[in-house]
């Protein structure tokens, strides 16, 4: 659904000739690093330096304007600014293997568009659409990389989610209670999808079900299952889950969701692990 909405918003994207790939020459004038929070459509030249906090799968869309494919990735800079980049068609093919979650890149020569807030919970009012001439370069030897956080969370207590509107996107941290098996479903259009349900609880005294859709169930979901079998409390920090109201409040993954299972330094994670070890789940 997100892919179809993106296609409807941006329209059918032009098909660029991928044979023109290769190194892209820089402009003669050096490009200045701009904080994400300062980006606006009236800037002709900008470069941001940011870490990839999540990356979607390559998705396909179809509407009255045509067919295509896209993927998106979310960025975080050292000042706490967040923004989403979207790549269509041949541009998606060009960057899908280049962009890695957790890595830091400089990005320039993209087009700024109004963010689609129904699907984008990030703090920027804009999104970046990358094109064939956009420049995405990994930053490897810059000391400034260490100043960029790996993730910023705004955690909600599970008890508070019970009063949160359906459709809202939230962050939550919880102790895993159970991990279900993968389930295969058939959509209304006849295509198949997979999901895995995980139950988490926190020290607000409530638990909630989290549905991991698609590959997340096979990757992060399998890792959760394996860690549960090893014994001891397993705490997961969840970024960007959509609140659902089917049979009561629940949470589900979206394209920008991510799950951190080995974040031992975050205070909220340490506190919940100690709470669970002291019998908090009993």
Main β-sheet: number of strands, strand sense, barrel status? 8 strands, mixed
What overall geometry do the principal axes of the alpha carbons give? globular
Secondary structure tally: strands: 14
Q: What share of residues are in beta strands?
A: 35-45%
Number of helices: 6
Distance between the termini: 40 Å
Question: What this model shows, in words?
Answer:
With 282 residues, the chain is of the alpha+beta class. Helix content is 16%, strand content 37%. It has helices spanning 2-10, 89-95, 158-161, 215-218, 220-229, 267-277; strands at 47-55, 59-63, 66-76, 82-88, 104-108, 111-114, 126-130, 135-138, 169-179, 183-186, 192-201, 207-213, 235-244, 250-260. The longest helix has 11 residues, at 267-277. It starts with a helix and ends in a 5-residue tail after the last helix.
Features:
282 residues, alpha+beta, 8-stranded mixed sheet, 5-stranded mixed barrel
């Amino acid at each position: 659904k997100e892919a179809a909405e993106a296609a409807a918003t941006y329209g059918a994207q032009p098909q660029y000739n991928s044979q023109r790939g290769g190194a892209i020459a820089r402009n003669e004038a050096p490009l200045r690093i701009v904080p994400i929070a300062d980006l606006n459509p009236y800037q002709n030249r900008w470069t941001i330096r940011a870490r990839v906090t999540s990356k979607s799968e390559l998705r396909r869309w179809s509407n009255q304007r045509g067919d295509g494919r896209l993927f998106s990735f979310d960025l975080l800079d050292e000042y706490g600014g967040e923004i989403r980049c979207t790549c269509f068609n041949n541009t998606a093919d060009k960057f899908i293997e280049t962009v890695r979650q957790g890595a830091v890149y400089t990005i320039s020569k993209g087009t700024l568009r109004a963010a689609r807030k129904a699907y984008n919970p990030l703090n920027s009012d804009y999104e970046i659409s990358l094109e064939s001439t956009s420049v995405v370069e990994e930053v490897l030897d810059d000391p400034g990389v260490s100043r960029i956080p790996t993730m910023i969370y705004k955690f909600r207590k599970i008890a508070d989610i019970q009063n949160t509107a359906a459709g809202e996107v939230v962050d939550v941290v919880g102790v895993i209670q159970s991990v279900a098996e993968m389930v295969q479903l058939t959509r209304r259009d006849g295509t198949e999808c997979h999901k895995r349900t995980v139950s988490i609880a926190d020290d607000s005294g409530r638990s909630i079900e989290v549905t991991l859709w698609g590959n997340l169930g096979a990757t992060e979901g399998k890792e959760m299952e394996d860690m549960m079998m090893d014994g001891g409390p397993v705490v997961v920090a969840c970024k960007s889950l959509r609140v659902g109201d089917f049979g009561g409040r629940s949470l589900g993954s979206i394209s920008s969701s991510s799950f951190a299972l080995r974040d031992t330094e975050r205070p909220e994670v340490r506190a919940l692990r100690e709470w669970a070890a002291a019998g908090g789940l009993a």
